[in-house]
Amino acid sequence: MIRVTLPVLITSVVGFLLVIAFFFRGFDRVNSDLSEYFNIIAAVAFILGGGNLLRMHLDKVQRRRPGWPYSIVTVIAFLFTLIAGLFKVGNSQGWTGPVEAQGSWFNFAYDAMFNPLQATMFSLLAFFVASASYRAFRARNVEATLLLVAALIILLGRTFVGGVLTSWLPQPLQFLSIPNLSNWIMSTVNLAGARAIIIGIGLGVISTSLKIILGIERSYLGGRES
Amino acid sequence: MSPAGGSLFDRIGRVDRRWIYVAIALAVIIPLMAKLTFPVITTPIVQNIFDKLDSLPEGSRVILTADFGPSTVPENMPMIQAVLRHALHKKLKVYLLTLWATGIPQLDLLEKNVLAADFPDRVAGTDWVNLGYKAGNQGVINSAFSDFPGAFPVDSKGHDVRTLPIMAGIKRLADFNLIVGIGSGFPGVKEWIQFGGDPAHVPVAAGVTAVEAPLLYPYYPRQLLGLMGGLQGAAEYEAALVKRYPEYQSRSEEAIKRMGPQTVAHLVIIAFIVLGNIAFFAGGEFKGRKRA
Hints:
heterodimer, A: 7 helices, B: 292 residues, alpha/beta, Rossmann fold, 6-stranded parallel sheet, 12 helices, 6 strands
């Protein structure tokens, strides 16, 4: 009973307090303190996250599930970064220096591994986007044609060439220039779609939050008691 | 390689993806080596940010966030460097911080490449401060809303911020004049608008990756005074900066230089899309559909 009632009670009280604090000025301190608790919990969540990552991947290795060698790489990389960071191995400024001080193993892992790996992953997107565009952007039907035309206008509109291609248009027709069309797509068509999605998400968040605060939605407790 | 058989158009439609990869690689490498650049015209959505920063009186307080990691450095770093140069040139007080663990090295790079290189006379803790990283995502912004020094109690060197001259008179987020969020995801600009700028009535300007920019248009212009979208946005800010302050021409044209390869790569992608559609309509796939 206490395993369910106590967390639901804490959630309800904190939820109501935060809602009140948002709308009424006198509750600034409550808002600030609760946010600070949130930050502490967020920091502690790193420990839980690390533990969970280790458990998942060690289990995968033990059971020889598909892709298990990659899990070994993940565990080694995690432990290396953790030990290098926690014990400030090789840190030129010793224990009191910042974790990313020059010469530290942590800094080496960031500069020599993490940085180039992330840059490479993101750079590869250019190749995949080009290949996917070639195959997917075909005017197979009306919807696909609209998507294709919009993509071409945006692609051209984001470069100098877009302006040059339509610079010959007379002043009264300048609204049809590629940069202007590109801006129109972004600030009108895209805006309408994005705003609709945001409002939808907002309503969903309010509805879910209310259900959690009122104790109707309890799946965050683990699922069994919901 | 591509399967044999079919008409020429069918074979074009099935071109091996490795040819596309080669074309894109060449489209980036050749303009980079040839140092190809194109003129950049600043659009109003970027000019608004420049004008706002330019109009702030000396000593105004500007939060500059580096909420991005190494993967988006080519897009985000030129933006944040140009904004920082501009703010320091205008003698504004700059508060650097990040909500991303991977943002710490980006702040260090800013210290090295902009603060130490271009503004060695500016004093840390008096003219600018690096508040470093704080875990907690939007919770940190919420804390800073009512108690800024409480949310960022020490700077990146471990100094108590309450002892720093730059923090004199700062109690809450509303004590700042501008927030410039440079980011590439969560937590980022959206959170700074929703939990920071909007409730505290502090104007927010943003610089984000091209992928994220469309998601932020709903906030412009009322909750977001301007938006730098991708490399193009960064180049536009640099163009505005160099136009007004030509002394930064040699140091603040990183994005403008990178726009050359991006323009050519875009043109190559467009050429492939057009070619793919010609092959689609002239080849057997479309004709077969029509018959069906």
